Amino acid sequence: MLPRFEVVARRRPVRLVVPDGAPPRAPYVATSAPGTRELSLAGGDVTLTATCGDRVALHVTAGGRTTTHRSRRSGRPEAPVEAVALTLTGPQVTALTLEAGAWVARARYDLTDRHDVHDEGWLAVLAGTGDETGRFGQVGLRDLRVVSQADGSAYVRDGRVLLTATSAGPGGFPTGHCSVWSLDPSTLELEHRADLFHRRDPGGVYGDHAAHLHRDGDRWLLASSTWGDFDRVKRPVGATIAESTADLTRGVHVLDSRPLALPTEGFRSVGVWDPHLARDGDGWLVGYVSATKYFRFHPALAAGPSLDALTLRAVASGHRETEGTTLARVGGEWRVLASDKRRRRYPVLDLDLRDVATLDAAYPTNIPWPTLVDLDGEQLLVGFNGAAYGGRLVGYGSHGEVVLQRATQPMRRASRQGGESTPHPRRN
Fold it and tell me: What b/e readout covers 99-125, taking b as 16+ CB neighbours within 10 angstroms?
């Protein structure tokens, strides 16, 4: 039986610049300086410049022409400016000011139609003019998951649990990227350890996220969602898989990824995301989410002897806004956990995706994934909320705040009022 959980801490480690002294390897770069200095990120025939006076402006030189971009509603600082930052997060370039101790986006521009920011040759010569230049960090964390061993247990380093997260950028889906963090179970403090990016063939380097890092023998497997260039019409979201024998829990890594084919036969699907891997004997279980349209989505579960030979086991088609599909051992049995936005609860499902229980826990805003951490007899529930950061100009995507809950007492049994499921027989 799972216990009852209560909120014990909240964390939001905002950091725009992570200095590393190396050329950028992915289009997630930032430069900053105190005061109101002019800042630039420049490489080849592309120059991105932020100026800060009465209003903040972006000046974009690309393709042989220069354009200037200001926000009529958000471009004027509302407090003394302590510092200025210029960020590139995917195709979005953003100028931010530090006001009263918080970063606020004051100008923003989408480079998609002006320049391919995913080109590794261009990234290698990109440089910033601020006092600090380096990788972009994060304005929020979401989609947290335990880095897992093959049996589903937590991967622990020096007494700390490792987690993957989506490091949120100042904007929509393509501004986020995958990062690795450690969680101290005694202090509940988070420490940033690594950033993981994806090289797709063809297409360059992307910040695909909503990921799961899995230790399988002497290799790491990283299953991710292709939010790095999501376009619901041109590029529906899918899943990828990458593998490496390097230590992905430290530093910066660009991984060669390939499509992870997640089965959708027998039901309507316009996209899949949130892959979660688990070894089941000699085979695999993979939980994921499938959308009947954007954005109506539900859990699905595949099984197979290898990740290249998966077949559908079950689909919870009755759920409507349910994601964060996560495989976990509960009482020695595999269970599938998820996050149901409409009912504001965490359903617990069996491997046929039938509701069997509900986590007795606080349900924050947005769709907080249910990540269970079991360490030395103590259980934690790691989630997040939909709290935005950076002001009105960033729009959706700058969430969230990490919400930590601790086990207090046994869980109640759940009703069967959850979504319908459709079992599919195993096919070997």
Answer: beeebbbbbbbebeebbebbbeebbee
The whole-angstrom separation of Cα 253 and Cα 13 is 21
Rounded CA-CA distance 189/193 in Å is 13
- Res. 415: pLDDT tops 70: no
Q: Kindly state the helix (H) or strand (E) to which residue 384 belongs, with its residue range.
A: strand 378-384
pLDDT score of 332: 87
Whole-angstrom Cα distance, residue 78 to residue 410? 49
Residues contacting 342, CB < 8 A, separation 6+: 320, 321, 322
Cβ contact 78:115 at 8 Å: no
Closest CA to 86 of 138, 123, 125, 33: 33
In whole angstroms, give the CA distance from residue 137 to residue 261. 30
| CA-based nearest residue to 214, from 253, 250, 242 | 242
pLDDT digits (tens, 9 = 90+) for 331-355: 889 999 999 999 999 999 999 999 9
Q: Tell me the residue type at 218.
A: D
For residue 360, give both structure tokens.
Answer: 């007795």
CA angle 200, 204, 209 (to 5 degrees): 60
Report which DSSP code applies to 318.
T
247-306 pLDDT per residue, tens: 999 999 999 999 999 999 999 999 999 999 999 999 999 999 999 999 899 999 999 999
Does this model's pTM top 0.90? My answer is: yes
Q: Give the Cα-Cα-Cα angle 293, 294, 298 (nearest 5 degrees).
A: 65
Which alpha helices (H) appear in 7-117, and where do they start and end? none
Nearest to 257 by CA among 199, 212, 183, 298: 199
User: Distance from CA of residue 388 to its chain's centroid?
Assistant: 15
Spell out the domains of the chain, with CATH numbers in brackets: 3-13+139-423 (2.115.10.20), 15-137 (2.60.120)
Range with the largest mean pLDDT of 88-102, 222-236, 410-424? 88-102
> Do 251 and 301 touch, CB atoms closer than 8 A?
no
Query: Which residues, in sequence order, are CB contacts of 254 under 8 Å at separation 6+?
Result: 25, 26, 197, 198, 199, 205
